Amino acid sequence: MSDTSANTPDRPIVVGTDGSPPARHAVLVALREAQLRGTGLRAVCAYDYGPDRYAGYEWLTASDNAGLYVQLRDIAEQAVTDTVAELQKELGGTPVEVEVVVEPGRPSQVLLEASADASLLVVGTRGASSWGRLRLGSTSTEVVHHAHLPVLVVPGDDSDAA
């Protein structure tokens, strides 16, 4: 007997986004799929800012590093919200209910955790060469290998591969 619960409207589609052109394309594909399925979308952005990852002057002068993290998180959340709204407008049709999730951590882990109750996980790929696809640590590769649900990897087109 097949399990149809993975395709019910109460289970959202999760899409990973980082602001890159391939991620924008993945969000657009996920929005279309959510429209077709009549379900919601959870747009997930993972971030990892710290002394070894953040090179802006604010890091050196900030008296409250926790406040800086909050500010960076808020900026990321607003960017994801704006991108999703823009793509929904571009797509047209029935609006999709969207939840934006911005969490610290390794992108593949954040996506896998955010998709615990989802019906589908959508990720983009940078459209790298054959060598690039073999790199260890690629978010899309990690997600495909560790996901507990169907994963749609949306390839970047040739113009995204710059």
Q: How helix-rich are the residues, as a percent range?
A: 40-55%
Q: Report low-confidence residues grouped into runs of 5 or more.
A: 1-5, 127-133
Total number of beta strands: 5
Structural class designation = alpha/beta
- Helix segment tally: 6
Shape, principal axes of CA atoms: globular
> Average pLDDT across residues?
81
Helix/strand order, N-terminal first: EHEHHEHEHHE
- Radius of gyration, Cα only, in angstroms? 17 Å
The amount of beta strand, in percent, is 15-25%
Separation of the first and last Cα atoms: 46 Å
Strand order of the largest sheet: 3-2-1-4-5
Q: Quaternary arrangement of the chains shown?
A: single chain
Biggest pleated sheet: 5 strands, parallel
Descriptive notes:
- This protein has 162 residues and is an alpha/beta fold.
- It is 43% helix and 17% strand.
- It has 6 helices and 5 strands; from the N terminus they run E-H-E-H-H-E-H-E-H-H-E.
- It has a 5-stranded parallel β-sheet, sandwiched between helices.
- Helix 1 (21-37) links the parallel strand 1 and strand 2.
- The model is unreliable at 1-5 and 127-133 (pLDDT under 50).
What structural keywords apply?
162 residues, alpha/beta, 5-stranded parallel sheet, 6 helices, 5 strands, globular, disordered N terminus
